[in-house]
Amino acid sequence: MAEIRTVGVVGAGTMGSGIAHVAAQGGLEVVVVEAQESQLERARKYIGEINARNVEKGRLSAQQADEMMGRMRFQTDLGALSAADIVVEAIYEDLEAKKEVFRAVDKIARKGVILATNTSSMSITEIGRATSRPARTVGLHFFNPAQVMKLVEVVRGYYTSDETMQEAQAFAQSLGKTAIAVQKDQPGFVVNRVLMPFLAEACKVVEEGVASIEDVDTAVKLGLNHPMGPFTLMDFTGVDVCYAVMDYFYREFGDPAYKPPLLLHQLVRAGRMGRKSGAGFYDAK
Ligand code: 3HC
Question: E strands along 91-184, which residues?
Answer without folding.
Answer: 114-117, 137-142, 151-155, 178-182
